[in-house]
Amino acid sequence: MATDPSVGGEAAAPPPAAAPTPAVSLLGVIGPFDPTQEEWREYAERLVHYFVANDIASEGKQRAILLTAVGPGTYRLLKTLASPKKLDELTVTQLVDLASKHYNPKPSPIVKRFEFNCRSQ
């Protein structure tokens, strides 16, 4: 019989706390993509190494990690580039290719020809 603690008796023991679930420890950290610090190709390579180091083979998990790790600016960019498709409909390879084409566009032959013809000796 438990007594009321406000009357001067002892309080009933609280129920035992549930055992905490073990946290999954991942190796390494993937921060948000910052175009002033690194190129997209380098970021994509680091992401592949992160997947290998943590044994992440599921396409869905890889896509989720990519989309949460890139940061809000790059996420918005990918969403715009993928439109009208949703980001969940694309593979990791397709998402990386979209960003690669944006951050490292193929040079225009007209511009390259102009630069070549403007050379000075």
Provide the gyration radius in Å.
26 Å
Q: How much of the residues is beta strand, in percent? A: under 5%
Tally of helical runs: 5
Strand elements, count = 0
Distance between the termini: 100 Å
Arithmetic mean of pLDDT: 83
Overall 3D shape: elongated
Q: Helices and strands, in N-to-C order? A: HHHHH
Show unreliable segments.
none
Task: Please describe the biggest sheet, giving its number of strands, its sense, and whether it closes into a barrel.
Answer: none
Q: Which structural class is indicated by helix and strand composition? A: mainly alpha
Task: Walk me through the structure.
With 121 residues, the protein is an all-alpha fold. Helix content is 47%, strand content 0%. The protein has five helices and no strands.
Walk me through the topology.
Elements: H1 40-53, H2 59-69, H3 72-82, H4 92-103, H5 109-117
List descriptors:
47% helix; 121 residues; single chain; elongated; mainly alpha; 0% strand
Short characterization:
It contains five helices and no strands.
